[in-house]
Amino acid sequence: MLKKTWVFLILAFFCAVAVTGCSKKDKKLYDKNLSDLGGVFTADLSDIDFSYEISGNLLDEELLSDPTESEAFSYDISVSGQYSDKLLSWGIRRKPDHGIPDADPGAPELLSRYGGVYLGDTGKKVVYLTFDEGYENGYTPKILDVLKKHNVKAVFFITGPYLKEHSDLVERMVNEGHEVGNHTIHHLSLPQLSDAEIEEEVVGLDRAFYKQFGKNMKFLRPPKGEYSERSLAVTQRLGYCNMFWSFAYDDWYRDKIRGANYAVDIVTRNLHNGAIILLHAVSKDNADALETIIMKTREMGYEFGDVNDLLKPANINNQQR
Predict the structure, then answer these.
(1) Cβ atoms of residues 57 and 200 within 8 Å
(2) Of all helices (H) and strands (E), which one includes residue 60?
(3) Which of 41, 89, 125, 256 holds its CA 20 to 30 A away from the CA of 188?
(4) CA-closest candidate to residue 291, choices 152, 181, 131, 134
(5) DSSP for 201-218?
(6) Burial of 14 (0-12, 13-18, 19+ CB in 10 A)
(7) What is the rounded CA–CA span in Å between residue 299 and residue 272?
(8) How is the chain split into domains, by residue range?
(9) So what's the pLDDT on residue 209?
(10) 3-state secondary structure 81-109
């Protein structure tokens, strides 16, 4: 009798584990009745993979003895109306002496066809500052202080958990005249999602943002820099400008601290006309270096531009999504 009781208790325990899902976290489902399609209000940082932020190339020209050794691709734009699902990773090759970086062959034409940008006017000494804010690491208040002190406007690309957990910082971004961009709810690779899932990830975040601040997001930065012709077409149809970059470096590792001087040097050394600069706000180096970066950039004759000047008419959509 005692043996049967123990067997029953053991079976009951394993049944309870299976029912409650303690052994594995259940995938959360979207509730489309919520204003954010159920994404932002249920999203959690533990659901999101930030193991790498950029999957494309960050190459210096001098590191390659032969340009054919790069992982660049040649891409023919669709003329049939059928969108390609080929997964592409945004990559640029830096040039010395403040030259305009090379993007992968065919990529600028593809991006332009769907209203995206990675460069401003290369005939003007104007640069644009952007920050990716997947999660908060304690440096954003300092970054905002510096931007306010020097009257520089930027774009902050946020995720769902960031909006949910740090709405006070997002409110400060809005109130101080910065643009808040869309980095999706869960930081997923958009080409690997269906059209409906892309809409949930992007529009869901935008709806939650609109509910709090009464305005829509204009710019989208695809997580990891991964995109496809289809993801560009879908997000353009939803009213967003896909914003990539012409400069970035591996600054998203929290344990890779190299000092403010390193950040100042790599950013200012790679300034060029029309640059869209991507910095990650989780970097202590970037936060400590930002004031010097701004001052040196201006000393070199560059101005900080308004990203809204980069919008194309096809991307302007002021209707509530």
Answers:
(1) no
(2) strand 58-60
(3) 256
(4) 152
(5) HHHHHHHHHHHHHS----
(6) exposed
(7) 14
(8) 35-67+83-315
(9) 96
(10) CCCCCCCEECCEEECCCCCCCEECCCHHH
54: DSSP letter = B
User: What is the C-alpha separation between 240 and 221, in angstroms, rounded?
Assistant: 10
Query: In angstroms, what CA-CA distances link 243 with 160, 184, 300?
Result: 18, 13, 25
Rounded to 5°, angle at Cα 38 from 34 and 44? 140
Strand partners, 158: 133, 182
DSSP state of 312: -
Give the residue numbers annotated as catalytic, written as ranges: 132, 280
Would you state the structure tokens that stand for residue 6, as one six-digit string? 């123990």
Pairing assessment for the beta strands 219-220 and 126-133 based on DSSP bridges:
unpaired
pLDDT (0 to 100) of residue 91 = 86
In a 10 Å sphere around its CB, with 0-12 CB exposed, 13-18 middle and 19+ buried, how is residue 42 labelled? middle
Residue 11 has pLDDT above 60, yes or no: no
Amino acid present at 130: T
Tokens linked to 114: 């769907």
pLDDT of residue 255: 74
How large is the average pLDDT for residues 69-84?
Answer: 56
Residue 38 pLDDT > 70, yes or no?
no
Higher model confidence: residue 255 or residue 319? 255
Give SS3 for 248.
coil
What would the pLDDT profile of 222-248 be if each residue is shown by its tens digit?
999 999 999 999 999 999 999 999 999
N- to C-terminal Cα separation, the chain: 64
**Residue 235: both structure tokens together:** 């997000």
Q: Report the relative pairing of strands 126-133 and 276-280 from DSSP bridges.
A: parallel
pLDDT score for 273:
98
Q: What is the CATH T-level fold of the domain 35-67+83-315, as seen in this structure?
A: TIM Barrel (3.20.20)
| Selected residue with higher pLDDT from 25 and 101 | 101
In angstroms, the CA 240 to CA 311 distance is 9
**Region label for 38, one of left (φ > 0), alpha (ψ between -120 and 50) or beta (otherwise):** left
- Find, among 144, 90, 85, 97, the residue nearest to 117 by Cα: 90
